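Work package 3, deliverable 3.1, input record:
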Amino acid sequence: MLVPSALTDLQHIFPADALSIDAAECLVYGYDNSRRQITPDAVVFPSTHEQVAALVRACRAHRVPLVARGRGTNTTGASVPVEGGVVASFERMNRVLRIDPDNRLAVVEPGLLNGDLQAALAPHRLFWPPDPTSAPYCTIAGNIACNAGGPRAVKYGATRDNVLALRAVAGSGEDFRCGKPTTKGATGYDLTRLLIGSEGTLAIVTEATLKLTPLPSAKRTLRATYVDVTAAAHAVARIMAQPVTPCALEFLDDQCLALARAHGGDAIPLAGAMLVIEVDGEPDTLAPAVDAVSRAARSDGLVELLVAASEEEVARLWAARKALSPALRTLSPNKINEDVVVPVSRVPELVAATRTLAAKYALPIVCFGHAGNGNLHVNLLPRDDAELARAHDALSEVFDAVIRFDGTLSGEHGIGIVKRDFMPRALDANALALMRRIKSEFDPDGILNPGKLLPDRDIPQH
Amino acid sequence: MLVPSALTDLQHIFPADALSIDAAECLVYGYDNSRRQITPDAVVFPSTHEQVAALVRACRAHRVPLVARGRGTNTTGASVPVEGGVVASFERMNRVLRIDPDNRLAVVEPGLLNGDLQAALAPHRLFWPPDPTSAPYCTIAGNIACNAGGPRAVKYGATRDNVLALRAVAGSGEDFRCGKPTTKGATGYDLTRLLIGSEGTLAIVTEATLKLTPLPSAKRTLRATYVDVTAAAHAVARIMAQPVTPCALEFLDDQCLALARAHGGDAIPLAGAMLVIEVDGEPDTLAPAVDAVSRAARSDGLVELLVAASEEEVARLWAARKALSPALRTLSPNKINEDVVVPVSRVPELVAATRTLAAKYALPIVCFGHAGNGNLHVNLLPRDDAELARAHDALSEVFDAVIRFDGTLSGEHGIGIVKRDFMPRALDANALALMRRIKSEFDPDGILNPGKLLPDRDIPQH
């Protein structure tokens, strides 16, 4: 519970309708898609940069934890206020401040929804590349916090590649701007990209200048099935090695296909593995681009390559891919959805390792995801308490395999609560020590999103 | 001069042929393309990561300045050892350690030349995008130090967009790895991009994992002349707003054209401004891509649009562009070559401002550069001591104009010695304070490249 003097300070910053200590209201700002939940002591709804700066200073003065929150769509517990304190929900700072087509940029508030941004950009024939599955209801600053990606990242990069400048308030209470509305810059240290992926542990973003990309005027969707995972992964490497990069290169293993078919019907083929490939371009260039990608996809072990003939067929393909995540949750309410990354060429080894672990722990494990980046959603699917207990050991071995294959814990979901204990396996001790020291400079009293991203000091290195 | 105990420590780390305190030898490691020069007390030639780690620890123990050096092609004085001490020249760590086409990456030593890397990649039909004019004789770690760009950055990004992972030794003596050989990652703070552009002030890079791009199989070069700078800048915005991004979009103002013609002959047209545009692609896609860019380039004020018909014509166009820099030095041995960046739409205002300053200070100022990124090489060309004296005041006003137009001091050359006094104008005080604190965590005794990038504490904010 907040001490009275802290609450008084918050009341000086926020009008009555922008501050709540009501337990029922606080409750709903205490969980995210990780299904973890801790009720904060207060929720505030900032509407200006100045309020955020005053909020951080007040929280620092009272040593109160402060957790910035978009819409809680993240899967890692990064927005759960594990030490209580104040949650700042940015739902009222949701405006597009400026769209500047000549400079291919937009200036936005942190609580703007990704989908609302895309809708505002469409009339200008521009888009912002990050496209997580949650795009209709996740925020830009949430995307920034976890370096969100999505299928398009294979061609257009993830969040870190698509932000030009930020305005923010460090945990010290100092507000600052970093970056510029330009695509090049070599003026001092890159604070912008340091904040991206830092999960609100260094500073709270109050404004973002986003790099936009011209919207291609046409897109073609292909479906390629292969005899097995190795053949599909080999095709991915071939596709990525030629100059026409697809704008999506999604992978589903045989077990995902079986599940998708069970839920989605016979339109989903059964095969050893499937790739959903999208190619974008202009009317004149699209056909040859599709040809180039098709040639690369026609490698050993191809079963069938189909170009979707209609919008309905495209919709069915993506529906299968997008229905997977909820379908898996139906199968396993406690599913553990990881988003590990390995070099593209090591995808078959990783999938093979998960099969071995599935057998060892008698537990369903399926793999799908963004193959062009080697970013696989390894899903552990415990169906009862006994399987759930085994799943945690299996997960630990999944991470060991990922590290062994020169990969890392997360490609786009971040670390949050759920993966921070594994950080000492993924990073060397000196890198982790430098990260802790950077944290201490931005947030000397550790008020910003405590208990996230960096492991506790007593977690041993593996 | 090094104290004897420091020299003894260096002698324990380096064999006799990898350490010199000979004044004549030290002399040549004390300058760069900024034409500034300070002779270091010793030069060492590391050949392993372990030697570099031991070197940093020895320099820290003795509080000796340590400056990492590629080939000294930078223009900002970043590799000049202004406080003496030890220069570490990386010319012996120049190997390509691994080319991995399936994962589109290469692992290289820091002293590898950019041009040698490109030659090693060509048989794999891959390239590394950064292409500064000095590519044949500048190093990869030099490119990393200043976040080097070049014409291709408009399509493929600068150095910061094309490095996946680094191995490095911080000024504290701690060695670490950051990043992974994957194109996505959301595992902790982004130390990789923090090091890129830090000019050797945080850590010394000993290995780099570079992101590669498939080499397009064909390229077409266009030349577009316009009635004036504003018309050319408007065409640049139109070109950048459509989906086919050219792989070079270079700008020359009327004065540059006149100078290039004087040196390069009648093949160079006289006009209000010229764009050199390159479009790359595959045999099937190139023609429509050229058409799309040509349509965008055909805006109001176009004088003539020519597609180069032959290799010779292409070579002549680029020769004119590349001869500019040396031609300007002939005209003005003390030329001041800046590489400021502004939003693309503000290029005409910046060029107009430089014209006003040229008149005010009675000093030739010309503009050319990477228009697609708004990255202009503003060249001040003093021809005698009186003009040189005035040039410094003019330069200060150029930077004021750049900041006024929402731009920044450097797009690809970095800050070094020559621009650090202007940093307080470009960055707000809190951002600068955070940079200083990051520096203090990586390099607590300030031994790495002292006197660079960050301004002295007593430089007032403008």
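Residues 4-89 of chain B form a domain with the Uridine Diphospho-n-acetylenolpyruvylglucosamine Reductase; domain 2 fold (CATH 3.30.43.10).
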